[in-house]
Amino acid sequence: MMLNLFDQFMSPTLLGIPLMLLALSLPWVLYPKPLKRWLNNRTLTIQSWFINNFIKQIFLPMNTEGHKWAMLLTSLLIFLITLNLLGLLPYTFTPTTQLSLNMAFATPIWLTTVILGMRKQPTHSLGHLLPEGTPTLLIPILVVIETISLFIRPLALGVRLTANLTAGHLLIQLIASGAYFLFPLMPAVALLTSTLLFLLTLLEVAVAMIQAYVFVLLLSLYLQENI
Amino acid sequence: IMGGHDAGTQQQFTGVAKYFNSFTITGRRNCVLATYATIATIFLFFKLKPKKQPAVTEK
């Protein structure tokens, strides 16, 4: 019996109807909106605390021009964290394992930062493509290298998130299958495998949150360079 | 003159180095633009170069 390890990454459909929209709208449904009351309840207080801390962390080093991006980057972070964490539940689909989704987030936002930088401060944007103090003979090579590294940024962003989540889900499925099939044969080994599975699940919870944070942090750094 | 690393901002560049150097921001910008222009020129040269037709001879 051959396990198909990649079925979990297929875009879900029901009777031919794609359920991707349902999967993507789930985070929106889960979060409470602000109340009209003077005092918030505990859920809203925790939510506001988290959002405020994130905004302080990311936007304090940035100049005031960049503060306009707070809503976009904060909502992106919450969206990615929720999608990643919900995907760790059994039998759920993780939209962020799809490269198309991650590239769709990374490429337009990265391109916006590059175009903004070229418009507002073209000299600085172009000047940063050559590191300061480069020896004369190395100038053309380094310009080419820096240009390539600039254009590879959206690809790196998208692939980093996709690869981390896909690898984590694959590992969880492999080790869980291993523990399940080993249990009738070698219970002691199955117990060790289950312990490993538990630790891996904890790691994947951390990776889910960290990868979403890294995605948004890198976008904010690219914005900082250009704004 | 104090010892230590010279950041390059106090250097007085003359000639071509005034416009093309890797220390000032405008120098770096000009180097980048010059590199792009050179690459574009080489690309266009090979793209627009007429291809040699072999001579047609009557047998």
Automatic annotation (TrEMBL), chain A:
TM annotation in the entry: 69-89, 138-158, 170-190, 196-223
Reaction(s) catalysed by this chain's protein: H(+)(in) = H(+)(out)
KW Transport (keyword) present: yes
Membrane topology recorded in Swiss-Prot or TrEMBL: Multi-pass membrane protein
InterPro entries: ATP_synth_F0_asu (IPR000568), ATP_synth_F0_asu_AS (IPR023011), ATP_synth_F0_asu_bact/mt (IPR045083), F0_ATP_A_sf (IPR035908)
Taxonomy, superkingdom: Eukaryota
Organism: Nothobranchius furzeri (Turquoise killifish)
Keywords: ATP synthesis, CF(0), Hydrogen ion transport, Ion transport, Membrane, Mitochondrion, Mitochondrion inner membrane, Transmembrane, Transmembrane helix, Transport
Localization per Swiss-Prot or TrEMBL: Mitochondrion inner membrane
Pfam hit, one: ATP-synt_A
GO cellular component, one term: proton-transporting ATP synthase complex
Gene Ontology molecular function terms on file: proton-transporting ATP synthase activity, rotational mechanism
Coiled coil regions, renumbered to chain: none
NCBIfam families: ATP_synt_6_or_A
Lineage summary: Eukaryota, Metazoa, Chordata, Craniata, Vertebrata
Gene responsible for this protein: ATP6
Family: Belongs to the ATPase A chain family.
Full protein name: ATP synthase subunit a
SUPFAM superfamilies, per the entry: F1F0 ATP synthase subunit A (SSF81336)
Subunit structure comment from the entry: Component of the ATP synthase complex composed at least of ATP5F1A/subunit alpha, ATP5F1B/subunit beta, ATP5MC1/subunit c (homooctomer), MT-ATP6/subunit a, MT-ATP8/subunit 8, ATP5ME/subunit e, ATP5MF/subunit f, ATP5MG/subunit g, ATP5MK/subunit k, ATP5MJ/subunit j, ATP5F1C/subunit gamma, ATP5F1D/subunit delta, ATP5F1E/subunit epsilon, ATP5PF/subunit F6, ATP5PB/subunit b, ATP5PD/subunit d, ATP5PO/subunit OSCP.
From TrEMBL, chain B:
Membrane-topology annotation of the record: Single-pass membrane protein
Keywords from the UniProt entry: Membrane, Mitochondrion, Transmembrane, Transmembrane helix
Pfam families from the UniProt entry: ATP_synth_reg
Top-rank taxon: Eukaryota
Protein name: ATP synthase membrane subunit k
Cellular localisation: Mitochondrion membrane
Listed transmembrane segments: 27-46
UniProt keyword Membrane present: yes
Entry GO CC: mitochondrial membrane
Main location: mitochondrion
